[in-house]
Amino acid sequence: MRNDSGIVFVANRPYICCAMTAYLRSERDGEEAIRKVSLATYRMFDRLARASEYGRVVSPGNNSKP
Fold this sequence. Notes:
This protein is α+β, with helices and mostly antiparallel strands. It is built from one helix and two strands.
């Protein structure tokens, strides 16, 4: 088994992530699964934190004006 949890303080969107694994071939498999879930979760909350109330992400990288 491999488990991990944490509080992530994304601007305006803090969240708690808990991941638990079982029946692993190796501990590395659990670590990799937790890493993938954690990264996907972070990306989603980061995107939500940068979005307007209409859902559009507003950031310098998305601005077409110079």
